[in-house]
Amino acid sequence: MPLTEPLHAIIPAGGAGTRLWPLSRRAAPKFLLDLTGSGRTLLQQTVDRLAPLTDGGSISVVTGAVHAPAVLGQLPELGEQSLLAEPSPRDSMAAIALAAAVARRRHGDVVVGSFAADHVITDRAAFEAAVREAVAVAREDYVVTIGIEAGHPSTAFGYIHAGEPLAPDDDAATARHVVGFTEKPDVATATEYLATGEYRWNAGMFVVRAGVLLEHLAAQKPDLAAGVAQIAEAWDTPAREEILARVWPTLEKIAIDHAIAEPVAAQGGVAVVPAAMGWDDVGDFDGLAELLPADAEGVHVLGDADVLADGAPGSFVVGSGRTVAVVGVPGLVVVDTPDALLVTTREHAQRVKHVVESLGTEREHLR
Amino acid sequence: MPLTEPLHAIIPAGGAGTRLWPLSRRAAPKFLLDLTGSGRTLLQQTVDRLAPLTDGGSISVVTGAVHAPAVLGQLPELGEQSLLAEPSPRDSMAAIALAAAVARRRHGDVVVGSFAADHVITDRAAFEAAVREAVAVAREDYVVTIGIEAGHPSTAFGYIHAGEPLAPDDDAATARHVVGFTEKPDVATATEYLATGEYRWNAGMFVVRAGVLLEHLAAQKPDLAAGVAQIAEAWDTPAREEILARVWPTLEKIAIDHAIAEPVAAQGGVAVVPAAMGWDDVGDFDGLAELLPADAEGVHVLGDADVLADGAPGSFVVGSGRTVAVVGVPGLVVVDTPDALLVTTREHAQRVKHVVESLGTEREHLR
Questions:
Q1: What is the model's pLDDT at position B364?
Q2: Helix, coil or strand: residue B303
Q3: Residue B4 C-alpha, separation from nearest chain A C-alpha, in angstroms
Q4: Quick check: A348 contacting B, CB < 8 Å?
Q5: Is A28 helix (H, G, I), strand (E, B) or coil?
Q6: Binary contact (B343, A332; C-beta < 8 A)
Q7: A186-224 burial, b for 16+ CB within 10 Å, e for fewer?
Q8: Fewer beta carbons under 10 A from the terminal one: N or C of chain A?
Q9: Residue B7 · residue B112 · CB < 8 Å
Q10: Which Pfam families does the protein's record reference (chains A, B) (predicted)?
């Protein structure tokens, strides 16, 4: 399917990635890191992926003010006007709505699409095909999400419950109505979901006409919509800083899923384009290890590590120039950074966030 | 028991300690390291322990020529004449015999005692009492060993089989005849040993009159004895270097256990003084962890490590100034040195030597 109209992509770039500590830090969050050894950071790869879809459109990055210089440094081709710096984090709805509102003022009632800055997608052709179909469906005033093929009963993701085909007579169309969204399930529930064949992972990708998004917001969250409109109006004027500083902190902190996707799905206004694209949210070291090739000893390596392994298949080593010997424990995780070292196993990868929580004030510099 | 005559102590300081890599290196072997966080290296602690027993006697250290400067640096009180530098390793018999022969030339037919440079003994009073008794027994021309109370059926040590009391009518005497020595047993055999109450660990401590030792050597290994005598005669003369360089490489490589202890025990010439003195040979990281106190999280720490533990009781961290987080695996071993990092578990501590073997020529500098 050709692109029916140019996409205006919005990249919310936030999140600390605490389960990837000490690789990911507050000052060097996941999206600013090259986690796949490709030479490009996750943010850069996100932009690379969107480039073919945004010809004639635009790409905006919404990020915390503290990360703005790093984002611009990594994406010199975008320019300052593509960067929307948040004074403080207000969750995804405010970020995406502001970018959509600014895009509408600049470009008219265009189709926007939000794509997280810190996910990995290995099959770009499948991604592009899914987004092209999503753009076409968005022109029919749906809020369109992309439903990732659920490879296993993950308890780390929310699920999209897909219903009837949107265009049953169109063989080329794969989009379906969305029955609803679910929170992260337990394993039993996730297993049931997979058995039905009707559930997809929610990767937070939303494609929608800017006007449709903002109308839904006005209906669901009128105060938030009004605040965003006020900021967007001032954005490309000298009043931006003053209005932003005054209004932004008053905006409701809510995710787009709760503010729009769930209530609008209940009204029949959300569609899903199913896709298998080698997607991963790189949620923890177990997931990250899977994305990296294993050496002859079965060890996955990221960065500059000279690894010696003896009986440690499936281990994952993030190096910082030293020789690292892993002995006797399959699935070890060793993350070797200049000021902090993490040792765990892939099985316990989710527990890493507790370590970050326990750093306390005396180790504030390591966050 | 008072010391019946001064002891002339011999400290063979050799062995790479490959199971303690990367802490222990060829250039910084176990005996040169402070492994207990006491502020004194194992070698220095060995000398400290022997000081009260060698008043009026002497202490000699036999070590590889490459380690001689470091040994003298750690033991400035000893002086160069206390150091016997081996041009190459010829095992313990040549080292101890040479030191004994030099001592006899310098001091007459004194009682010598050999004590490894890289063991830990926590109960010094018990050690001193055992050595005092051993010196008294050595005056009766026995080769006297000290038999360490076997706390568990270790397969890492040889055992001493104790027989009848040497002086059954002397209530103060604990020495026994030695029936024989055993090689390292399997677990079943070691368990049988312990059940009999007749077996003790062989820690390689031998106390014997110099003349007795050298006569046994002449009887058992005449070529070795002749070579040692030739070197000893030249030792305190200008001919030392020339003779040492010529004769030393020809000496048979054999341990004192095989050369003297075993055959002389078979002749009834060996006695054992049983003792419990908190002895440990610090053979691997599992053993080393036991010697160090655990923090509130149950983690044993050596060196400068800021440890964060979550579900890793019994772990052992050797630090080098960084924050180290250990998560989810009890008994982890993390040895963090400037150029090499080892991660394993205490259960696999013995496997560390295989890592050193696999370093290969490209990592020769890490040995």
A1: 87
A2: strand
A3: 50
A4: yes
A5: coil
A6: yes
A7: eeebbeebbeeeebbbbbbbbbbbbbbbbebbbebbeeb
A8: N
A9: yes
A10: ManC_GMP_beta-helix (PF22640), NTP_transferase (PF00483)
With 0-12 / 13-18 / 19 or more C-beta atoms within 10 angstroms meaning exposed / middle / buried, residue A261 is buried
Nearest to B327 among A340, A351, A366 (CB): A351
B322 to chain A, closest Cα gap in Å: 5
How many Cβ atoms sit within 10 Å of the Cβ of residue B91?
18
CATH entry, A7-280, from 3.40.50.2000, 3.10.50.40, 3.90.550.10, 3.40.190.10: 3.90.550.10
**Vertex B220, ends B154 and B141: CA angle to 5°?**
80
Q: What are the beta bridge partners of residue B144? A: B207, B271
**Between helices B222-235 and B240-247, what is the axis angle to 10°?**
160
Respond yes or no on whether the N-terminal peptide bond of residue A22 is cis (omega within 30° of 0).
yes
Is-contact A228 A216, C-beta < 8 A? no
For an interface test with A, the pick among B297, B323, B335, B367 (most A C-beta atoms closer than 10 Å) comes out as B323
* Residues of chain A positioned with their CB less than 8 A from the CB of B351: 310-311, 327-328
- State whether residue B300 is helix, strand or coil: strand
> Rounded to a whole number, what is the distance in Å from the CA of A23 to chain B's nearest CA?
13
Q: What CA–CA distance (Å, rounded) separates A297 from A279? A: 26
**DSSP, res B68:** H
Q: Given an 8 Å threshold on Cβ–Cβ distance, is A334 in contact with B341?
A: yes
**Chain A nearest CA to B282, separation (Å):** 19
Q: What is the pLDDT of residue A16?
A: 74
Are B300 and A319 contacting, i.e. CB atoms less than 8 angstroms apart? no
Give dist(CA B330, CA B216) in Å, integer: 50
Residue B186 per-residue DSSP state: P
Residue B189 buriedness (CB in 10 A; 0-12 / 13-18 / 19+): middle
Residue of A nearest to B330 (CA): A344
The Cα of B89 is separated from the nearest Cα of chain A by a number of Å equal to 28
Instruction: Return phi, psi of residue B87, to 5°.
Output: -65, -30
The Cα A33–Cα A31 span in angstroms is 6
Closest in A334, A351, A366 to B323, CB measured: A366
Radius of gyration of chain B (CA): 21
Task: List chain B domain ranges.
Answer: 7-280, 292-366
Residue of B322, B344, B363 lying closest to A328 (CB–CB): B344
Facing B340 at nearest CB: one of A325, A328, A363: A325
pLDDT of residue B252: 98
Interface test with A, best of B23, B306, B327, B365 (most A CBs within 10 A): B327
- Terminal Cα-to-Cα distance of chain B (whole angstroms): 45
**Residue B222 token pair:** 């005449």
- Nearest CB partner across the interface for A323, out of B310, B323, B339: B339
Residues A113-124: tens digit of each pLDDT = 999 999 999 999
- Tell me whether A308 touches chain B (CB under 8 Å): yes
Quick one: closest CA in A to B327, which residue? A344
> Among B298-302, B339-343, B357-361, which stretch is predicted with the lowest mean pLDDT?
B357-361
- B356 to chain A, any CB pair closer than 8 A? The answer is no
Residues of A whose CB is below 8 A from B328: 344-345, 347-348, 351
Q: Would you place residue A227 in the very low, low, confident or very high pLDDT band (cuts 50, 70, 90)? A: very high
Is some CB atom of chain B closer than 8 A to the CB atom of A365?
A: no
> Whole-angstrom Cα distance, residue A293 to residue A215?
46
What ipTM is given for this predicted complex?
0.86
Q: Hey, CA dihedral for A119, A123, A129, A132, is it positive or negative?
A: positive
pLDDT at A20 over 90: yes
> Element (H or E) spanning A204, and its range?
strand A199-209
